[in-house]
Amino acid sequence: MAKNSPDFIFTLDKDERIIYINKIEILNLEMKDVIGKPVYDFIADKYHESARDSFKRVFKLGQNDRYYSDFIYDDGTIHYFESRVGPILNEGIVVGLTISSTDITERKKAEEELKKFKSISDNANYGIGISDIEGKLVYTNNYFASIHGYKTGELIGKNLSIFYNDKQIERVMKLKQKLIDEGSYNAEEVGHTRKNGTMFPMLMNGITINDDKGKPLFMATTAIDITEIKEAEKKLKESEEKFRNIADQSLLGICILQDDVIKYANQRMADINGYSLEEIMKWLPKEFYKTVAAESLDFVSEQAKKKQLGLPDTIPQYTIQIIKKSGKKIWVENFSKTINFNGRPADLVTFFDISDKKEVEQNLRESEAKLSTAIESLPFPFFLLDESGRYIMQNTNAKKTWGDLIGKTPKDIAKDEETLSLWLSNNSRVFSGETIASEAEYNINGESHYFIDIVSPVYIDDKIHNILGVNIDITARKHLEQELRESEEKFRNIADQSLMGICIVQDDIIKYTNQRMADINGYSLEEIMNWQPHEFYKTIPTESLDFVSEQAKKKQLGLSGVIPQYQLQVIKKSGEKIWVENFSKTINFNGRPADLVIFFDINDKKKAEQRLKESEEILRATLESTADGILAVDDRGRVTHTNSKFADMWHISQELIEERD
Does the pLDDT value for residue 485 go beyond 60? Predict the structure, then answer.
């Protein structure tokens, strides 16, 4: 039996000498070389101590023991052995030992490989779990255990269902069946539940470990927490939704141009051009150039090409005319720059219709030209003083009569104290709200001239800013001239149209704002984003507060009966009030309704409209104040202005005269 045993079997006497051995041929020795020899001659030195201790325990206690060692065969290979030591008893006394040494080389190698695998697996930055076919866990690495809130020791023997709630387990069971049927699955997103009940997503791969006959014994999975990836996807989706909400609501036309093809356009861009979105998105390469007026085509195509290629030396802002589908030309302000779109450069184009602005500017120029012509055509001196009492405007007749007055005061030009006293008194009364008409005698170039001086206040927003006056020379003819009014300041050119101010309000807190919104309100972005709930209402004047707060509340709650567009004044940080055009609507923000607010600064437009009205009033007041009958016609022979004196002279109503050619 010992001869046929797969193990090495030794028998030792009390002195630990060999008295029997099987398989001596494997050692390539003869019996005489082994029998009677100390067993330590055949045990490597490094194992002597562990073997001796094992022998002593058996001799002393009479119980089985074991030790481990290795042996180098003649072919140079190392074999590892587990040696089991038992007592040989004679009447209850240990008189010798029997040693059975099993070759565990293959097991040792497997253990080493397993040890390497475990070392790598335990320290992997992804989860590894192994369970039997029933789902009982036999191994998890540190990542897999800790990501679920456990220690590895807690999980061995537990069912893998410990990682899933009732809703998640249904999908897990389907994947388990797929694994058994097909042998693997790849890149499956699976919901997991931590020990504390919180849920998170993992991306999983699975394989089966089969026996020699292909029967599944174990299920092995690798998994990685994709919470951050899912959050990034969510934020990207929210960002895209925010952009589309803003773009769809924006008064700006927005499009993205790549390879001379419109890759994206919003509804406003379609509206400005007079096409439908479907038409625009079907345009062939370069077809969009048909909307550019011929005089701008070379410039626009060069700029578009550079920005689509990401080249330098581009012009980010310019004004051009475009051709609508109807053939009508309109003015637009264009802002464009290179962006990265789908991994390649593209041209982001934003523009808005400034036709109204151009029309207002033209009306202002025409009004100023009319006013200037009317003032210059007066047959008597005209002057305008500011609040400090300095002359800021005069016509040619005033210059001929009094010399250059600009920048001077009455004290600088009065010929004597009596004249100065009269002028200062008149000016003071007029700045108090009076209109004065009086006769006066002046010595001009050594000659006496008689004038009717008419001096009137100029009101802007119910406040006197200037006084204007005329000196009607009645020395040669006694008639009154038209009283003139001139606005305090020249109409300013409307500033280049800027982008809209944009913000999102939720729970009465500014959740998002852009730089233009900060600029319009005169605050920094940091100040606005740190405002407490309701604090933004400090920018709303008292007269509009109830209306604005009601609208904001409804839109934040997603209620009906709202007004999407209105004009109001806002109070800047400096205390200044400005007019804005408000476009606002309910949007979905972070899963809840919010108020998307877009501001358009229309302060300049409001001022321009007011000044245009004031200019017309100045002209009409001037014409009406004169004693002469006056009729003004345009280059087409149409009556533009007349005064009541002219109507009285011709015994016809002033309104009927102005209706005639």
Answer: no
